[in-house]
Amino acid sequence: MERLDAFMARANAAYYATRDPFADFTTSPEISQVFGELLGLWAAVMWREMGSPPGILLAEAGPGRGTLMADALRATAQAAPDFRPALHLVESSPRLRAIQAGKLPGAVWHESVEDLPPGPMVFLANEFLDALPIRQIRGEGEAFVVDGERVWSPDSDAPIQETCDVAIDIVRALAARGATALILDYGPSESAPGDSVQAIRDGAPADPFVDPGTADLTAHVDFAALARAARAAGANVHGPTPQGKFLASLGLFQRTGILARTQPPARAGAMIQAAQRLAEPDRMGRLFKAMAICHPGLPTPPGFEA
Ligand code: SAH
Prior knowledge:
Elements: E1 2-3, H1 4-18, H2 21-24, H3 28-31, H4 33-49, E2 57-61, H5 67-79, E3 86-90, H6 94-103, E4 108-110, E5 121-126, E6 135-138, E7 141-146, E8 149-153, E9 161-163, H7 165-176, E10 180-186, E11 198-201, E12 204-206, E13 216-218, H8 223-232, E14 236-242, H9 243-250, H10 252-261, H11 265-279, H12 281-285, E15 288-294
Parallel strand pairs: 2-3, 2-5, 3-4, 5-10
Antiparallel strand pairs: 1-7, 6-7, 6-9, 7-8, 10-15, 11-12, 11-13, 14-15
Helix pairs in contact: 4-5, 7-8, 10-11
S-adenosyl-L-homocysteine binds next to α1 and α3.
């Protein structure tokens, strides 16, 4: 009998260590290069708002193939050459660390967000928090996994409440150190009861509780709970705002249009469709959200204006 969070942590550690997650699912930075470019420019703007501290840390948690950060740094090298951050990555998978190292020379890796060195920091995380282990509680009962099945102990019919203690701790630590953090992930804007654990195995929905390590397990990110934790630790919180609205206001379609203009028609069309996939409400534009956590002295970040 293993509590759900322990099961999920063990299953995902094995999954990310041994499998190629991108054979099972795709993510925004893999869909369009403009995603990472816009996030890089966002980071450079926030660095300036922070007073352009030299040696600022640019951290990313769960960088996957390193695509987001490579796109971000290419954009900032052009548009903000004086932004020369120290690159710090939080990645537990040795396999993915090796892939990231190929794209991001000079980066330094850490096991967890708590291990990031002190100092002014811009922190990015796309589809990282949804992979962190959650607990499910209903009434007096708690979810455990036994022999490939979820059981409740004690049994209860109450609605399921989910909590992700690891994510709350991360956000609290980011707020307490005055970091500027941008979190993109999927989940509702208001905390809602219900079971959001899902598994993708070989590219298709699967039973989350069997064969741990063979499927990617995720749960909805509870943005409202994270916002409360960040505010309680003294930070300002902006959003969550739908990803489509956020990216459009940062110039997703303008930038895509500029890139597409110099491409052959088929390639140009694919680039525009990729941008639409990120932004359209019935695709990734609404369920995915952006939320920023900032020092209260900073102005509203780009993309979060009313
Ligand atoms: N941000 C990337 C990848 C998302 S997949 C993208 O958008 O494409 C989730 C990423 O988080 C992977 O890199 C995975 O190895 C990493 N990850 C998952 N759980 C982790 C943990 N507990 N500690 C550190 N990294 C973790």
